[in-house]
């Protein structure tokens, strides 16, 4: 009962969307690991709102319980060519196991240094500047596997109908975003409430 009341409060607290502070995904989308509460942040390196909230996402992630599986996915919109370019950089850093170290630097390159990754040689220059093994990066970046990852991110973007970022998906059943939740700080309150609700649902089963 307490969880139901809390969830109702969350809806009322950020009355900015058709369902309040979050929206229900119907039909729900199966998660990668049913034993975990899955949270996905869809983002775009070129989005200033994503850049601004990213340190807050990092701080929030560090406090998550072991039963929550959080991951980021880069959107790919065919109407914006740069999203696939940025997604391929994201996929390459992730595949090389160096994403946590260099993820903030990609945001900085775009929003502070104003680097245009569509320009020839700009990615290589950025890789060299950040002390990344350029041979390993180039080999991985140009591989079939990275193109497959971009295609997968495109499929996820379409499956979850992501038309704006940052957007958070909770267990394939709910979505929320800062403007819907009432602000950047409030979106994490909504996320925590939805995670608690999912945790209670699992316990009742």
Describe the structure.
The chain is an alpha+beta fold. It contains nine helices and five strands; from the N terminus they run αββαβαααααββαα. A five-stranded mixed beta sheet has the order 1-5-4-2-3, sandwiched between helices. Helix 2 (about 50-60) links the parallel strand 2 (about 35-45) and strand 3 (about 70-75). Helix 3 packs antiparallel against helix 4. Residues about 1-15 have low confidence and may be disordered.
Distance between the termini: 16 Å
Number of helices: 9
User: Biggest sheet: strands side by side, in what order?
Assistant: 1-5-4-2-3
Instruction: Name the beta content range.
Output: 5-15%
Question: What structural class is derived from the secondary structure elements?
Answer: alpha+beta
Helix content: 40-55%
Radius of gyration equals 18 Å
What series of H and E elements makes up the topology?
Answer: HEEHEHHHHHEEHH
What key attributes describe this structure?
205 residues, alpha+beta, five-stranded mixed β-sheet, 9 helices, globular, disordered N terminus
In short:
The chain has 205 residues and is α+β, with helices and mostly antiparallel strands.
SSE layout:
Layout: H1 2-13, E1 23-24, E2 37-43, H2 48-61, E3 68-74, H3 81-95, H4 99-111, H5 122-129, H6 134-141, H7 144-159, E4 167-170, E5 174-176, H8 178-181, H9 184-204
Parallel strand pairs: 2-3
Antiparallel strand pairs: 1-5, 2-4, 4-5
